[in-house]
Amino acid sequence: MLKKEEIAYFNYSRNENKKFWRRVEEVPNFKNKSVLDFGCGHGALSIDIALLGAKFVHGIDLEDKPLEFANKNLIKNYKHLNNIKFQKLNILDSNINQKFDYVVSKDTFEHTNHLPEVLQKIYNILNVGGRAYLGFGPLYNFYNGDHGRLNMYLPWFHLLFKEKFLINRINKKENLNIKTIQDLGLSKYSFAEYKNFFKNSSFRILFFKTNLSDNPISFVFNALSKIKIFEEFCTYNIYCILEK
Q: What is the C-alpha separation between 243 and 102, in angstroms, rounded?
């Protein structure tokens, strides 16, 4: 039985896919191509790519509940698609023998630890000339970069306190036992670190843009991000295309 709220989120995500492709400024020709969806979640992006005629789409994630929905939804509503697979898989701990023409990842890299190693793994599993299409945010140093998971309520407050205080507070408030901020699924990488990770990776950077949004208030942050002292705290997302 698929829950209404999960179906609603899946449909919302499919609508968000249109923004993703608009922001990277191109939709690849997926016809007869193999695609890895890194951080597939509920499977919306994987489904759309499969419907565009991909030869094979492998959606991977670490979260059980979204994957459970993705597989149930696939069986119930997209059983005609025999070119797609959803699987719980850690890309760093698993041997992926298959090569892919494309890797896509939407709203995942802000949650991804060990990113240099992940980028190298993605590079290794791509065919020569293969591309990775990435879009993610908000970044940790933005005003809501904790994704609400630290319950700090006010903008940028998660940056004003030491990590030990934040961890003790959220453990007490939510009856948790986390040891680090990363245990909440937040990578904590700064904008400067992301730029260095991409620059120092094996990839060729074909496209790199930040602060792409349809929110009418975003122009304020876009303007402030151009001032060096505010750049780190007013850059909220990254969209890029990397090529092997």
A: 9
The answer, yes or no, to whether the previous bond of 216 is cis (omega within 30 of 0) is: no
**Cα dist from 235 to 6, 104, 158, 176, 184, whole Å:** 30, 22, 16, 30, 22
pLDDT tens for residues 160-214?
A: 999 999 999 999 999 999 999 999 999 999 999 999 999 999 999 999 999 999 9
Q: What is the pLDDT of residue 97?
A: 86
Q: Is the pLDDT of residue 1 over 90?
A: no
**What is the distance between the terminal CA atoms of the chain, rounded to a whole angstrom?**
41
Which residues are paired to 204 by β-bridges? Answer: 243
**Enclosing H/E stretch for 193:** helix 191-199
Using alpha carbons only, give the angle 124, 125, 127 rounded to the nearest 5 degrees: 95
Side-by-side strand order, sheet with 126-136: 84-88, 56-61, 34-38, 100-106, 126-136, 238-243, 204-210
* 38 and 104 Cβ atoms separated by less than 8 Å: yes
The tens digit of pLDDT for each residue in 22-51 reads 999 999 999 999 999 999 999 999 999 999
Widest pairwise Cα distance in the chain: 53
